[in-house]
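Interim report to the steering committee. The following record documents the input for Helix-turn-helix transcriptional regulator (209 residues).
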Amino acid sequence: MNAARLVFETAGYDNASMAEIAARAGIVEGTVYLYFDSKKDLMHRVIAEWYEGLIASVSEGLTRVVGVRARLRFCILRHLRVYVEDTGLADLMIRELRRDRKFYETEIYSLNKRYAAFVTAEILDGIKQGELGPDIVPEIVRDLIFGGIEHCAYRILSGRGGLDIDLVADRILGTLWPGIAAQKEASSVSIEDRIARLEKLVVANGEES
């Protein structure tokens, strides 16, 4: 599995060979087929194992983050890290697996849903707590987040450079937040009262100086 992951990450699916994977694992090629039906089966197993690790990482990481906005930022930043730290596998997922017409029948699709569900759960929790607007559609917001991340990450996948993932995470969330945050009720303090309080404060400061 480790040898296969290395080969798939560096060579991609089409250029990866079972012979090279076997050689890196120190076994003969025929032995690989005792455990995996095909190169595609092996690739699916590698990606599934990778997803399990991502799910565990996000689940554990969220236990240390408080607040809906902070938790959404954590999810965004963690997914951006995928493209930086696991570029080859992320590229494999987008260019190979998702183009397969049978993708939605695979274990990987189920794992992908579990992974994306972290963001959906945070949005639902934000609505429940009154931090997010009651009329927003969680699935749409989730898709906007992941779609925005993927669009930004094409810079990495195409080899055109890196990303400041902290800056990108802040920009994505900063752009979305005004549209999804709950509209707070107008303050009961009138504008006249606010002006009067400000005038008193100015006078008081003047007297102190």
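DSSP finds ten helices and no strands in the chain. The committee is asked to note this result when reviewing the revised timeline.
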